[in-house]
């Protein structure tokens, strides 16, 4: 597991734009790759069916274009990550080498899964996000810096406002993306509720 | 009420409960079910503003949970409340030969890992041949594990199904499965609540599946982001539990994190006599408790939408999201009629589906008919189809499979000889599992086959072929398509007039 135990509030790298609304978790990681008992091998299967034909030849998907090799920031449109609750989707994104996702909006469970893994899912106003996309299409080498403290994205001397769910931002700023320790600290209160509700 | 206000209310409620004050009820006159169940299960507010929520019932299966046991082991943790967790296998299990070891090595390994982990941690496991195995969202309700007023977590987005009983039922990721195993709690942000009322009476041949496909079509696949959906109105009140489950099941396809129906006599009667439900006086007592969870008459909502049942027709998808749907007598949309990204989304979907704009969806040739899944794989689905299928034959060009959602559904259907009606008509009657709903077992589309499917997702590649095409519809519409060999109007094929 690749979870930040220390706080990380800045994410930077080259961007890559995967076009489309409602990009679902089956597209991000086709179900047949879910046959696994660990997440270790998922990276290369990211977006497999839209990247490769039935014989495994590249279809020239944007992720495989030479100018976008090494990209670390994924950019997409609305409702990114809809569909299944499978954590395999953010895991595949992370294992592929992508560190953050920028989109117009995100599906709820996907957003939560990403936050727990330390992948920020930030949103931007559509027109600004489109401008960001045009910047990286003009210069694929342009560095994108996501600053969760100031809620800004910087790219090629442009500064954009970004949004991040408050609880997720707090978690990144405090370095507590993984909530397990806080959850475990409330053992007595958990036991009290279990008893009160008749679940003990 | 905005999200800040919901958070504020929830904070107040927690504060009040922490200080032992009991005036919350008077301060806020009416509460909806979501607020009541939430308030009962909140443990504390976390530093990042999220809430720690106690989960009453945890359901696990072989795809998203083995990794969580691994994480637990890495941290040297034990399962906190093993008696609150139940396991079964559904996604990868073959529906023809389930004898062990399974033919697929990785599938066998996944079952084995789950079986070992549940034994090690003292978790009850329903494997094949136990009599209780099946799709996790069919199994929970039929055993009576799912009960009103519960919070339910499962590493599967269609956990929303259980909301039909008046639960907050949440799909969660594997890290949260780990949190849940270790602490019986998860961290989450509160949701807003949208009440969706469907008023009036459904026309003959229009089913619960059409209701939810219609709702998603109108409100959009991301219309529910940030919301819990409360389904209400006369149509929902008149529905059976199976029908309510079909509706709640696809809340997630509408973007909502969960959906629920207020518990009522229909709910209680369904649960009476179930294996894991108390009997006699204890049952009467628990029913009284369940009743208190229903939304108050003066409850407030963040949003309200009302649908007229008369507007709902048999609905089918034409594209690659459940929102890309039309009624059976409409024509396929034209990308030219819209601008911007929407234009390319429609034309990309039509390219993938190999469908033409402005043509009727009716008459689209199909290759496969799939009846099953956690949306429509319960006994009543097979009963309804058997009633219209009797004496008819599946078109010889169509491969048709009927897959019961659980061993109990299978057994009940066999006792009614439903399997014979299906087999005589030309369907294969399979063993229980997720089957062709997704591509994790041997049931898959081949090449660019078109499947008329009673499942819930028509995403690209969902049914196991990267060029396979899925058309979502109700079970009787699947039956009509199977008989005609093409997408057809069940009302015409089966002469459904006058009776629901
Ligand atoms: S039937 Fe389909 S949607 Fe339901 S749990 Fe199985 S794979 Fe998921």
Question: Could you explain the architecture of this structure?
Answer:
The complex is a heterodimer of chains A (200) and B (500). Chain A has one domain (10-175): Alpha-Beta Barrel (Aconitase, domain 4), CATH 3.20.19. Chain A has helices at residues 25-28, 48-51, 88-96, 108-117, 126-138, 166-174, 180-184, 187-196; strands at residues 10-17, 73-75, 100-103, 121-123, 143-147, 152-155, 158-161. Chain A has a 7-stranded mixed beta sheet with strand order 4-3-2-1-5-6-7. Chain A contains 8 helices and 7 strands; from the N terminus they run βααβαβαβαβββααα. Chain A is globular and about 60 Å long. With 200 residues, chain A is an alpha/beta fold. Chain A starts with 9 loop residues before the first strand and ends with a helix. With 500 residues, chain B is an alpha/beta fold. Chain B folds into 3 domains: 1-29; 31-313, Aconitase, domain 3, CATH 3.30.499; 315-493, 2-Layer Sandwich (Aconitase, domain 3), CATH 3.30.499.10. Helix content of chain B is 36%, strand content 16%. Chain B has helices at residues 3-18, 24-27, 33-41, 66-75, 105-121, 136-143, 174-183, 208-219, 234-237, 241-249, 265-271, 280-291, 340-353, 373-376, 379-389, 407-415, 418-425, 475-484, 490-493, and strands at 42-45, 51-54, 57-60, 85-88, 124-126, 151-154, 168-171, 185-188, 192-199, 227-232, 258-261, 303-308, 315-317, 325-327, 368-371, 399-402, 428-429, 450-453, 469-472. In chain B, the strands form 5 sheets. A 5-stranded parallel beta sheet of chain B has the order 5-4-3-6-7, with helices on both faces. In chain B, strand 1 and strand 2 (51-54) form a beta hairpin. In chain B, helix 4 (66-75) crosses helix 7. Chain B is globular. Bound molecules: iron/sulfur cluster (SF4). Residues 90-91, 135, 137, 156, 158, 373-374, 434, 437-438, 455-456 of chain B line the site of iron/sulfur cluster (SF4).
């Amino acid at each position: 597991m690749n979870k930040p135990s220390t706080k990380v509030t800045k994410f930077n790298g080259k961007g890559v734009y995967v076009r489309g609304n409602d990009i679902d978790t089956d597209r991000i990681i086709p179900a047949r790759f879910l046959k696994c008992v660990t997440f270790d091998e998922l990276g290369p299967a990211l977006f497999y069916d839209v990247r490769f034909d039935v014989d495994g030849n590249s279809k020239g998907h944007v992720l495989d274009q030479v100018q976008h090799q090494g990209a670390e920031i994924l950019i997409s449109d609305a409702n990114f990550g809809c569909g299944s609750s499978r954590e395999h989707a953010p895991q595949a994104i992370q294992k592929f080498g992508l560190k953050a996702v920028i989109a117009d909006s995100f599906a709820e469970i996907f957003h939560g899964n990403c936050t727990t893994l330390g992948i920020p899912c930030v949103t931007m106003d559509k027109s600004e996000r489109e401008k960001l996309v045009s910047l990286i299409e003009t210069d694929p080498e342009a560095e994108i810096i996501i600053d969760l403290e100031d809620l800004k994205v910087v790219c090629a001397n442009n500064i954009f406002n970004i949004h991040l769910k408050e609880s997720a931002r707090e978690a990144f700023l405090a370095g507590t993306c993984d909530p397990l320790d806080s959850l475990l600290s409330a053992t007595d209160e958990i036991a009290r509720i279990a008893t009160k509700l008749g679940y003990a | 009420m905005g999200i800040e206000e919901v958070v504020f209310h929830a904070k107040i409620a927690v504060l009040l409960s922490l200080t032992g004050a009991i005036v919350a009820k008077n301060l806020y006159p009416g509460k909806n079910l979501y607020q009541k169940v939430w308030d009962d299960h909140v443990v504390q507010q976390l530093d990042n503003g999220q809430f720690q929520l106690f989960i009453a019932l945890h359901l696990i299966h072989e795809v998203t949970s083995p990794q969580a046991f691994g994480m637990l082991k890495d941290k040297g943790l034990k399962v906190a409340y093993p008696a609150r967790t139940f396991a079964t296998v559904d996604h990868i299990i073959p529906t023809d030969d389930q004898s062990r070891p399974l033919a697929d090595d990785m599938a066998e390994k996944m079952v084995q890992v789950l079986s070992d982990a549940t034994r090690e941690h003292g978790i009850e496991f329903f494997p094949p041949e136990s009599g209780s195995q099946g799709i996790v969202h069919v199994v929970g309700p039929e055993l009576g594990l799912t009960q009103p007023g519960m919070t339910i977590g499962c590493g599967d987005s269609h956990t929303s199904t259980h909301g039909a009983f008046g639960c907050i039922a949440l799909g969660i990721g594997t890290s949260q499965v780990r949190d849940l195993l270790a602490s019986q709690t998860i961290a989450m942000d509160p949701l807003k609540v949208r009440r969706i009322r469907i008023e009036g009476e459904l026309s003959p041949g229009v089913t619960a599946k059409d209701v939810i496909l219609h709702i998603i079509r109108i409100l959009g696949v991301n219309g529910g982001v940030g919301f819990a959906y409360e389904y209400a109105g006369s149509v929902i009140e008149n529905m059976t539990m199976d029908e309510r489950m079909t509706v709640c099941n696809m809340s997630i396809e509408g973007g909502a994190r969960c959906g629920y129906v207020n518990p009522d006599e229909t709910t209680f009667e369904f649960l009476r006599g179930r294996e894991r439900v108390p009997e006699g006086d204890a049952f009467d007592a628990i029913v009284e408790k369940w009743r208190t969870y229903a939304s108050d008459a003066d409850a407030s909502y963040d949003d309200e939408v009302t649908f007229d049942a008369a507007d709902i027709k048999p609905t089918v998808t034409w594209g690659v999201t459940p929102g890309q749907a039309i009624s059976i007598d409409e024509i396929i949309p034209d990308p030219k009629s819209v601008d911007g990204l929407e234009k390319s989304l429609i034309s990309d979907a039509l390219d993938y589906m190999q469908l033409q704009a402005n043509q009727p969806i009716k008459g689209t040739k199909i290759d496969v008919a799939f009846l099953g899944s956690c949306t429509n794989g319960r006994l009543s689905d097979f009963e309804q189809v058997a009633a219209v299928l009797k004496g008819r034959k599946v078109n010889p060009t169509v491969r048709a499979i009927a897959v019961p959602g659980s061993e109990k559904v299978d057994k009940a259907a066999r006792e009614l000889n439903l399997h014979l009606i299906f087999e005589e008509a030309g369907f294969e009657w399979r063993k229980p599992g997720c089957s062709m709903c997704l591509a994790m077992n041997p049931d898959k589309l081949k090449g660019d086959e078109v499947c008329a499917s009673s499942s819930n997702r028509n995403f690209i590649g969902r049914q196991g072929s990267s060029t396979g095409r899925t058309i979502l519809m109700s079970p009787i519409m699947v039956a009509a398509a199977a008989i005609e060999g093409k997408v057809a109007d069940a009302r015409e094929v089966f002469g459904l007039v006058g009776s629901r």
